[in-house]
Amino acid sequence: MPHTPIIGTLGYVMSSDRRRVLMIHRNARPDDAHLGKYNGLGGKMDRGEDVAACMRRELREEAGIEVTRMVLRGTISWPGFGKHGEDWLGFVFRIDAFEGTPLERNPEGTLSWVSLEALPSLPMWDGDRHFLPLVFDADERVFHGVMPYSEGRAVSWSFTRL
Predict the structure, then answer these.
(1) What percent of the chain is modeled with pLDDT above 90?
(2) Which listed site, 40, 48, 88, 104, has its alpha carbon 20 to 30 Å from 7?
(3) How far apart are alpha carbons 26 and 105 in whole angstroms?
(4) Is residue 1 a part of any domain in this protein?
């Protein structure tokens, strides 16, 4: 049987001084599977859309900004991550430049600038703590990881860099 994951993007928007990242605190919808967690911005890819176009669209919709420079930092396969055990395949970007002023909130929650040092202290998916250092480090190689989930928790993490 072919592997047919949900494809999505996840973007981490950097401040101009590269010391802060724009995060969403998912605190707006009680039925949100991400309720209470902080996350980067992004979402599901639409049919007929490439991953870069998806990332740009998601940032336009969720933060009200236009991307002018972004870097693919990695890909992650999340088997079992979905609400009903669906598999996800994510393309993780670092957004290095944009135009506009980010929104303060959107229908999913509050947006705020968080210092890179404060990221580990935020409530987030436990698995995010494994790959976030790879998004912001100085290694220019792209990472490719797999992080299986079971019952809402990451059960392992492995990656390679090319």
Answers:
(1) 91
(2) 104
(3) 10
(4) no
